[in-house]
Amino acid sequence: MTPAVSGPIYRWEVGRKGQLAAAMLQLAPPVMALLRTVRPLLRLGSFWVVTRYDDVLEVFDTDAVYGVPYQPNLQVITASHPFFLGMPDGPEYQAQLATMQAVVLASDLPHLGDEAERLAAARIGAANGRIELVSFVRGVAFDLIARYFGISEPAPGSFALWGSRLFEFQFTGSAQDKAWRAEAEEFAVNFQKHIDRAIAARREVVAAGVSPDDVLGRCLARQAAGAPGYSDVEIRTAILCMIVGGPPQPPMVLPQAIEQLLRRPAWFAAAQQAARLDTPDNNDRLRAIITEAMRFDPLAPGFKRVALSSHELASGTPRARRIPAGATVFAATASAMMDERRVPQPSCFDPDRHAHNYLHFGHGLHECFGRFINHATLHRMVKPLLARPGLRRARGSAGRLEKRGPFAHRLELVFDDDA
Amino acid sequence: MKQVTLCVPLEVKPESCSRLTAAIEDLKRQEDKSADPNSPNFWRLRERIPTLHFMSISVFPAHDYDPVFILEANFDGPEGAFWNDLTAVVGEELRVMIRCCKRPSDGTGALYDAVTALASKRSVAPYFEARTQRPSVFHHGNRGLACQQILRDHSVFLETVEELDRRAPQLYRGEAPAKVHADLRTALLPNHRWLDDQAPERISPAERITDWAALTLFVLLLLAVAAAPGLLLAGLGVARDHLVAMALASVVATAAALLFWVRHLEVRDSSHDRPRQDERMLREMIRREDWITQNHMGSIVLIKPGVLRTVIVRAGHRGLHLALRALRASRAGYLGSMRTVHFAHWAFLNNHSRLLFFSNFDHSWDSYLDDFIEKAHGGLTLAWGCGVGFPTTRYLVGEGAEHGRQFKAWALASRTVSRFWYSAYPDLTVDQIERNHRIANGLRNKSLDDSAAEAWMLDL
């Protein structure tokens, strides 16, 4: 059986390396706190770590200098077809962005939120009082996004496997690593073929007079109307990248957020109360609590950028350093969100913080395209679970969040199943 | 609870002054929706900077200097978070204003370049931080009450009034005070669960101790300086066995000498009895005043030259500041017997050659100054007496502001138009805020006995 059909969700899950890396990452917050004070811009050869809020924002805002390094890996995933995630700002970037904005609509968000909650509730109903949170959220997230984009689950294989492995390759892998690259290519080719088949099948369905209102349907309608940017390859590339970039995020970040809440019983209780009181205000409250919990263990410790030209970062301040062209710059968003110089009382759990205190999905030109979908759906994915009475950790180590490298691996919860 | 008062003075490029003024007016038009009853007024500042009590942006023209842009802010909590919040709301508007100002020639020039560069997206927060001017004297009315607490207390007050009106007043009239308190608490609690929490401490014991320690240290330092000549003489062998007596004699002699010197200068000072008023500016100031319960003023004056004056004005401001922090009335939320000042401060500008004053106060400017003249003329004379043209003073604290008409004319001439001014609670006086707080605090008690409830009801 090929890896594209079954296998571990992440390469980090194989062997001891993932556990070791996870243990190392546990040390990051105190190290970053120290760096923010003594060496806010740390140079490690050609690798620079940017730790303060102001400087992280400057890196993101100066996108003409600090470019995204995603292109080489992205080419492996898309078979060298361009996608705006890997592009600098310019007409091509803006055109591609506009084509996606025309089919992924703000008006879909309320429905997506409801759908996320419905899918989650259905899975919890069949859970018999015990749930492994990471795989639970993964199932909901991929199911939700696949339906929204109009692509059915592959057989053999699975979106969760393909999407997660390609996400891992895109953001933590290297195209220079031949074995990893070959593996990623296999996943990518399978994924591309599956979407191609879905496009062909949809075209037949549309020809038969049925036209489901999903992203694929909208893309094909625009293609039929002659709108630029919607060739079959462009549609395939966009849907592929969206499924690779989006749904792997919730199973990383939501178990981490729940783990943080479980460590704070009063806030865990507040989240449960908000989940049980099914009103828009309480949905907002739950979102705020989850978003704040994520700040204590975010999606990623930071984002990489590459200096395209020499640039003085934090110029005009005593910590100013000149970053040479070609250097890799790590904008440590997790550290920035804990920077007491800009974030009031960062060690306090405060769900009433302003949106600009959060950098969960980056900032500026390449801020995550799916951030609005995350905003609408993340809290709704765990809402039915939080609403369950008697929700608590499973006994023993299974009830503690386990990670492999930067990825959440397991967290088991139990609840009273008689509700 | 930490509260901060600060200002950011920036020298304006003379050729950009009208553009800067227009930018401030644009910001005012954008945020101030008071003319439109359907739009919430200043909602962006109110919602997104919940720690901000008052903020003003002004441009001060001058004959002796280029115009100066000043942003004044009074807020709760750490400064870095405030600047971050402010720039998240109006950062680009502030960048336009900075571009109208001169590049500073001190160490912040590079930061100015970074934030004003063409198409710069660099946050202006670090620049404002670097250019912040600390006040020499400040007063916080309703000290220790966070902005959100003031608003919460007020909503309790309004609901209390509503509840009293809703139920026929006679139903309360015949009841025991403790029962009235219990009924009102029961009625308000569902909408104000925080009434179940203990009231946060307005001024912590550590803060009080620090305030008194700083004042004591300052007085001891003054005494040490005054005693130094006597101690020096004793060290040189003059009355070596009478060290204490020499120190005391030195303090008396130094004080006498300084007073003599001060008086010598005072009688030769010129007061500016009829300063020239800019009619256009006066009309503009009048046009903007008395729309709401509160008003705002900003003033800059030149400081009299001389070594003694330089020393005295700094020491006087330091002492006044420390006294204002330690005094019981100030801790209770008032400026001595004055109950109309929310946030006020003095700050030195241009290497201590100019003195800035900002105040956010209740009622009209005239009655505010009358209040000052009547109740706090000594402190006012001490703080402002160093200003060129100030009415004749006597031993630093005498006369001066007592010359009411002259003082008002002098103060008026030093003012400028408050082009942008924001108050988080424009309808509340200092007194009303204290009253609201007492009512809310009373309701935090699960029960009161009749005598305590009766005393509490006096505020209803």
From TrEMBL, chain A:
Coiled-coil stretches noted in the UniProt entry, renumbered to this chain: none
Gene3D superfamilies: Cytochrome P450
Record InterPro entries: Cyt_P450, Cyt_P450_CS, Cyt_P450_sf
Molecular-function GO term, any one: heme binding
Keywords noted in UniProt: Heme, Iron, Metal-binding, Monooxygenase, Oxidoreductase
PROSITE patterns: CYTOCHROME_P450
Region forming the signal peptide: none
Pfam families xrefs: p450
Protein family: Belongs to the cytochrome P450 family.
Protein name, per record: Cytochrome P450
Organism: Sphingomonas aerophila
